[in-house]
Amino acid sequence: MSQRYEIRLSGAGGQGLILAGKILAEAAAIYENKNATQSQSYGPEARGGASRSEVIISDGDIDFPKASALDLLLCLTQEACDKYVGDLKADGLLIIDSRFVKDIPEGTFRITRADISKIAEEKVGRSVVANMVALGVIVAATRIVLPDSAERAISGRVPRGTEELNVKAFRLGLQAVNGK
Amino acid sequence: MDEQFTRLSRRAQLLGTHYERYLITAAGNHKELVARLEHHSKLDQVNLWTHHPAHDDQMAIVRDIGRGESEKLEFLATYYALQFLQMNLLALDRLELCLAEGERKVVAYRTFLESQATNYQRLNRAYISALLDLFLKGTNPPRFVICNVGTRWDQDDVDILIVHAEDGNIEALNKALSKVITEFFRRASRLHLYIAERAGLNGFSATIDEYVTSLDRDITDFVMSSELLAAELLVGNVELFEEFRKRVLIRFFSTSERWRRFHVGFLRGLLGEMHSMLISDIREDRIDFKSDSLRLAKGIALAGRVSRNIRNEVHPLNVLNILADKIPSWRREYLAMGDALLWVEAFRLLYQMLIVQEEEIELTQSDVDQLAPIAARMGYTSKGGIPASSHLLVEYYRVVEEVRQICREVVENMTSYVKEKSTYSYLTPERPDDGRRKRNVAHEMATSVNRFSGHLFFEDILRTLKSDGGALAGKLVEDTMKLKGARRKNVIDGYLQFASSDPTTFLELVLTIHRVTGAQSTRLFARVVEQFLDKMRKEDGLVQGLLGVYAARPEVVNQFIEVLNRTQRQEFESLLDQDLWDEEQRSVLARLKDYIWLRTGGSEYYRRLFRRVVNSTPQFIHQLQNVERLNTFALGYLGSSEKGETSGEDRIESLGQYYDLAFLSCAIRALRGEPLDSYRIPFIEFADNYMSSLYSECKKRAIEETGIKLKTKDLFAILAAGSYARGQAFDDDYDFIMILDSNNPRLFKLLNTTARFMHRELVKRGTIPQYRYADHFGHFVTRFGEIEGWFQDGHADTIDMTQILGARLLVGSSRFMQRFQDSIHDRIFNDADNFCRQLYQEILWRHESMTNNDPTQVDIKEGRGGLRDIEQALLMLKAKHQLSGPLDKSLFDLTRAIDTKFRYELNVLQASHTFLRQVRDVYRLAVAADDCLMESELDLVADILRKGSGPEVANGKELMGVIKLRMQKVWETVESITRVSCKPGK
Question: Which of B111, B508, B731, B869 is packed most tightly, with the most Cβ within 10 A?
Fold first, then answer.
């Protein structure tokens, strides 16, 4: 991992991306002793349309808490992809939900396609856990945090007994990339 | 002569009641004895009414004038009784004289103890010899020796061992010994033959070969070994005694390579016993001479004796003096130990002489009052209104603590000695591999362990297991799992043996196995835990042992609980549920169960913090029941952080400890259902203290890093925003607005660097701060002009405005805050109507995006009628009335005073705010860090609130009902406020 790794999670409002961002940041900061910042959009920006949550992870100090040159961009909607892909670094990684993002602008960035929402609906049975599936895809594709750290961070957010569902979704996301 | 006896009887009243038997013996026969002595004209050759050391000769005379065995025995007993009583009385007189003459206490005690020991031994020797002469007459016994192996003073028994050669009539000897033992028990004291019992001898004595065989069979029944080493000739053949010492005792000493295994094995038993005593704290409700200090002090002397090859001296006091000379670097410690041993032995002996022959003293008031004569005998007086017995007790505990402290140091020092000498030394990394490392370590260790009875010192091996990157631990696991069937079982049984004898070592061993990575260690760990739990189910005493570990080494129990999975932990907890008779143990058990709940109950959000606190500061584990004390410790760390002489890193570390402890203190309060403000107010107070202190420290660090030494004057402020500004406890994160009113790039750099360091420290506390406006402007710190421009240019949305309106000053001057408010607030205040409309719209949008079709869940923060609605309604009123200050109780009060038409609504909102906050806080700590409450998870929350200050609801379902009703009421109230406050736009 480079000294500083910038991640933006984007999609529609209500897709749980803020929670996913917090979990990712906590996995890095609390369970792996790395440094992390996390921010999210609020208000009108978050009502319908594109919503985003940003995480910066670093082994060292973070000078600048705003993500501007993304190492990783997750897009769960076409609108989000259109809006934010320009912020992705030339050698960055774009992860998309292949159900909703059909048109990918040209660029030298790498692409990982995953059936995120489909996995959430068909294999977990709850579309609301798409954010956890997405998290699994991110962790598998980048190894930015250890899967175990992410699972612990997930467990820290949900009541006991419901971890199973969320962790299952996360693991399916891991497999979606690792299984390829 | 009657007069003499009467005088003696009268004087003997100051002795304990157990001396009555000697008076009765003497009363029965002294007249006859005197008459017979007179008849034989030998009265002047026998001292009946004064103490005299020539017991051998005098007993011979007394014995000879008796007619028939029965009368001889009576006369001997009478002589013994009279001499014994006078010996004790004389000793007390001499002690008093020594102290009165100004002798140092320790010197007086030494004289007292040594003369008592010498006199008692001499009297017993003479009596036993006289009895043996009687019972062995006309027989042809073998050579034999009777050795004293225990304390040299009168206690309730005399520990002896007997050795015989095979050159005579052994049966006759045994018969005679039997009679001696019986007679001695009737008239003097019990002769205790521990070694005969343990060694399984067929009679009272054994040959040297039999003792050797017994030792070979059981390497460390260390009590037996200790007695053998303490053997001192009492009666018998000197040559035989010397041969015994030479052949039996050599193996204990360090000089022979042949006996190294035995020497180390003995030390392991001895140090193991001491280690286990040091682990447990001394009891609060009683004095236990042996466990508190005597065994430890004597153990130290014995360990030093065998390791330094001090063969001929057996008395611990003398051994300690020799050790002080032999080891100059430890001179102070050994001399101090000697003085401490003298003090305690004197106390104990006086207690046993004057009160009762017991090894323990209950510390009830009446028992303590009984110590008055002992205190007086030891030279203590009442001073400063404090009775002498209190001074005595204070000194006792000081001495005990000194003994224990020195013991810890010596045992620590001996650890490396044992490691050096150990037969396992080939395993230590610094030794070259001579091929022995191919051996199965687990099998070897288990074989040794299984041969031990009692405690086993294992500290050196544990340390080796923990060091070297865990290579040896890995080998231990691997070697265990290589074995099959009964051999593997034997090894695991060896590990489990520690659970009974030394639970601390057992837990450390289990943790060591757990730390080895890999499937084998996971399986082995699971197996050992499973068998341990089974052992707890079947065996008595294990729980008590664990309580001892928890009391003395809570961090070990803490780590053990941490590594158990949920099923194992639940079972462990259920097995702790025992009805213990000992009150002190019951109290420790209650604390342990409470601790387990605090550690494993609650949400991961809470447990994460809890783990951090107990893992970094295990010394506070026992304080968790007392949140006031936790808070005191927290403040102590805050104080440390302000000490100029420590380094910046240390100060920040102390600040972190302050934060964690204060946080935990508030969390425990909330989990106990205490009212909201009882934990919320302290929470905000410590958080604010922490932030401002952290800023100071980080700024110093930033100055060092950047070299920029500029004063910020009134140009910089850190504001709390969001829920932190509103006084919300236990939130996900802290929201900050950091504003600099300057375009100076160096100052900007300095403060951004400061913020960067602050961020790093806050992340370590388990929270990821948010920086308002960093999203817009990219930096931690935003310039004043940037924010002004943002608002001026119409970029600021409703959320930006609410953040500004609700902000609270943390660092910076009130003048800056005033300037900031004047500039930014006015923009909002001047267009309050518009702001209110926008805010209302924002509320409606939020509700729309949060549509929830699941009736068993409710979002207590963002949902309709939730906390956000309350806060935003209050912001509307704040804007309308152009009020400053954060959204807290004072704002409610102020608004109520200004806007009386909303008095009722504000009361509803304030009460609801308090209720919903408390529910949310308890849910966060007890269930999950999630604002979406699930009905199925509310039972615990309902329970906590019901037992504390919350509503009387029976279960989670009822609580959900109350929450929903309340939120419904809130929404109706907010709507009625907005109907009035939000005038239609133009």
Answer: B869
Query: How big, in percent rounded to 5, are the helix, strand and coil portions of chain A?
Result: 45, 25, 30
Cα→Cα distances A144→A131, B3, B161, B719, Å: 17, 99, 72, 32
Q: Give CA–CA dist B229/B248, Å, rounded.
A: 9
Instruction: Point out the least confidently predicted range of B640-654, B746-760, B856-870.
Output: B640-654
What confidence score (pLDDT) does residue B265 get? Answer: 79
Label each residue of B661-715 as H, E or C: HHHHHHHHHHHCCCCHHHHHHHHHHHHHHHHHHHHHHHHHHHHHHHCCCCCCCCC
- pLDDT tens digit sequence for B65-76: 999 999 999 999
How much of chain B is helix, strand and coil, in % rounded to 5? Answer: 70, 5, 25
A chain contacts of residue B799, beta-carbon cutoff 8 Å: 42-43
Q: If we measure between CA atoms, which residue out of B163, B160, B136, B134 comes closest to residue B149?
A: B160
pLDDT digits (tens, 9 = 90+) for B472-494: 888 889 999 998 888 888 888 88
User: What residue has token string 């003459």?
Assistant: B101
> Is the Cβ pair A43, B780 closer than 8 Å?
no
**Domain spans of chain A, in order of start:** 4-178
Looking at residue B196, its pLDDT comes to 66
Amino acid at B788: E
Residue B972, pLDDT score: 94
Tokens at residue B422, please? 């150990």
Q: What is the C-alpha to C-alpha distance for residues B554 and B412, in angstroms, rounded to an integer?
A: 20
State the DSSP H helix or E strand holding residue A177, giving kind and residue range, or none if neither: helix A163-178
Q: Are B573 and B622 in contact (CB under 8 A)?
A: no
Q: Report the distance separating Cα B795 and Cα A152, nearest Å.
A: 39
Best A158, A164, A166 member to test B by mutation, with max B CBs in 10 Å, is A158
β-strand A88-97 against A70-75: which pairing, if any? parallel
pLDDT digits (tens, 9 = 90+) for A80-96: 898 899 999 999 999 99
For residue B83, the number of C-alpha atoms closer than 13 Å in the C-beta half-sphere is 27
In the predicted model, is pLDDT for residue B508 greater than 80? yes
Report the top-level CATH class of B699-824: alpha beta
CATH annotation of B835-981: 1.20.120.330
What value does the mean pLDDT take over residues A37-49? 63
For chain B, give every domain's residue range.
1-137, 260-421, 603-674, 699-824, 835-981
Question: CATH code for A4-178?
Answer: 3.40.920.10
Please report which residue ranges of B452-582 form alpha helices under DSSP H. 459-466, 471-482, 485-501, 503-515, 519-538, 542-552, 554-563, 566-576
| Residue B603 with chain A: CB contacts under 8 Å | 156, 159
Of A25, A63, A66, the CB nearest to B768: A25
Phi/psi at B382 (5° precision): -75, 130
The CATH fold of domain B260-421: Four Helix Bundle (Hemerythrin (Met), subunit A) (1.20.120)
Residues A157, B928: C-beta atoms closer than 8 Å:
yes
What's the N-to-C CA distance of chain A in angstroms? 22
Query: Once rounded to an integer, what is the mean pLDDT over residues B836-858?
Result: 84
Beginning with the edge strand found earlier in the chain, give each strand of the sheet holding A4-12 in spatial order.
Answer: A35-40, A50-58, A4-12, A70-75, A88-97, A110-114
In angstroms, the separation between the Cα of residue A32 and the nearest Cα of chain B is 10
Predicted pLDDT at B276: 77
What is the C-alpha to C-alpha distance for residues B282 and B277, in angstroms, rounded to an integer?
Answer: 9
Q: What is the pTM (predicted TM-score) of this model?
A: 0.71
- CA B114 to chain centroid, in Å, comes to 37
pLDDT at A28: 92
Q: CA geometry: angle at B618 spanning B615 and B620, to 5°?
A: 130
Is B835-981 in the same CATH topology as B260-421? yes
A and B: number of Cβ contacts within 8 A: 100
